[in-house]
């Protein structure tokens, strides 16, 4: 691997790592807020760029939504995020 290609790979890896860390941190925050501040938790969950963590966060928030129509909408968003996955095992994991 030449120097330029190595640099690009490293930079791409760092960007992905930052995104993953951000997703993990936001998922954790959603978990803490979902029961007491579901509207705020939903806002944060929707802002997660990585589908794996967004799906989990949306599903968690949905558990605490009192309005049945909103619950179904958010569960639909979680399922849509699940289908954004590129790894089949993750699609099955979050959709079951």
Task: Give your account of this protein's structure.
By secondary structure, this protein is mainly alpha-helical. It has one domain (3-95). 79% of the residues lie in helices and 0% in strands. The chain has helices at residues 3-33, 38-46, 51-62, 68-83, 88-95. The model has no long low-confidence stretch (mean pLDDT 84).
Detail the topology: elements first, then pairings.
Elements (H helix, E strand, L loop, with lengths): L2 H31 L4 H9 L4 H12 L5 H16 L4 H8 L1
Give the structure's gist in a few sentences:
By secondary structure, the chain is mainly alpha-helical. The chain is 79% helix and 0% strand. The chain has five helices and no strands.
